[in-house]
């Protein structure tokens, strides 16, 4: 049985990271994007990473940083992976790699070209598909994404994000069959505030979907 991996993004404290781990999440995302309601201080981020259990992955989420700025974030809070969530070009992503995740804002008019573009880059380990506006809680057209993925025959693991929650993640998994799902607003009691019960419900829904 294939198992869908789970990333809880926008974690801002050790307690939330532990809750995610206890619920069976595989990764936590730490947001280093100014202006985000989920922004975490690098020192706090370092503490979160240091308290993760063995085999749980940390992901630094950044946007439109040049190599020097990225290196500063990486030095302040070393994470296993870096998720590039802006309009970075190939040379920048390559320079910040390896162990890079490239996020793509879903657009049915460009998704095939974008999947091809980033699947060719060796430094990209996975491609994440998000809604038109990151962190907005908007879902995407899963059927169109599945068709695009089939057309491209994406060789990279695909991470599905964009408005996922406990109520809809099973359907999303059934349609897209992603390597992993990424949740943020869908496990929040209010904007930027994670709810352990919602995290548990989301992880349970993913496991139930995998078991079907």
Helix content: 25-40%
- Biggest β-sheet: strands ordered side by side in the sheet: 1-2-3-4-5-6-7-8
Radius of gyration: 16 Å
Main sheet record: 8 strands, parallel, barrel
Distance linking N and C termini? 10 Å
- How many structural domains in the coordinates? 1
> Helical stretch count?
8
Question: Can you offer a commentary on this structure?
Answer:
The protein is α/β, with parallel strands linked by helices and 212 residues long. The chain has a single domain, classed as Alpha-Beta Barrel (TIM Barrel). The chain contains eight helices and ten strands. The protein has helices at 14-22, 42-50, 67-76, 90-96, 111-119, 142-152, 169-176, 196-211; strands at residues 5-9, 27-31, 57-62, 81-84, 100-105, 124-130, 158-160, 180-183, 188-190, 193-194. The termini are close together. The mean pLDDT is 94.
Task: Give structural attributes.
212 residues, 37% helix, alpha/beta, two-stranded antiparallel ribbon, 8 helices, 10 strands, TIM Barrel, globular
Q: Which helices and strands, and how do they pair?
A:
Layout: E1 5-9, H1 14-22, E2 27-31, H2 42-50, E3 57-62, H3 67-76, E4 81-84, H4 90-96, E5 100-105, H5 111-119, E6 124-130, H6 142-152, E7 158-160, H7 169-176, E8 180-183, E9 188-190, E10 193-194, H8 196-211
Parallel strand pairs: 1-2, 1-8, 2-3, 3-4, 4-5, 5-6, 6-7, 7-8
Antiparallel strand pairs: 9-10
Helix pairs in contact: 5-6, 7-8
In short:
This protein is of the alpha/beta class and 212 residues long. The chain is 37% helix and 21% strand.
